[in-house]
Amino acid sequence: MVKRITPPEAAELIKQGWSYIDVRSVPEFEQGHPAGAANVPLLDFTGGRMVPNAAFQKVVEATFPKDAKLVMGCKVGGRSMQAAALLASAGYTNVVDMRGGFAGERDAFGRSTSPGWVEAGLPVEVTAPAERTYAGIVKKAGL
Questions:
Q1: Which domain holds residue 16?
Q2: Which residue, 73, 88, 105, 111, is the most exposed by fewest CB within 10 angstroms?
Q3: Which residue, 92, 35, 97, is CA-closest to 66?
Q4: Percent of the chain, pLDDT > 90?
Q5: Which CATH number does the domain housing residue 79 bear?
Q6: To the nearest 10°, the Cα dihedral for 59, 82, 23, 95?
Q7: Which run of H or of E encompasses 12?
Q8: Virtual torsion, Cα 106, 111, 114, 118, nearest 10 deg
Q9: 101 vs 72: CA distance, rounded Å
Q10: Interacting residues of 49 by C-beta distance below 8 A, sequence separation 6+
């Protein structure tokens, strides 16, 4: 079972040296992401629809050791939970899921049910150094 945490808890872990992996697609990441996040998409846009990124686990394993302290995040919490569970089943021992993601969970009426990173007022950036972009991570991993 993967532990779920709030955005403020995630921000505190990042201050303590944990890495934040944003599993949203490259275009989503480029529109804004938690400050310091690295982008490794769980799903990608292909032919106008979202499809699994077959290289996800391989890229993470080539970039982060199994004992790395990882916070997984996405848009609202679904993809990051899947990614965290996948990594935990692959032997990662310090992985948590950030509930609410970047944008926050909403109910059927659009009301916030779990505030996201932005609603929590946490630092956001729209650019990232090459080593935190998906292209840069893949290149550094030699894949």
A1: 3-141
A2: 111
A3: 92
A4: 81
A5: 3.40.250.10
A6: -70
A7: helix 7-15
A8: 90
A9: 9
A10: none
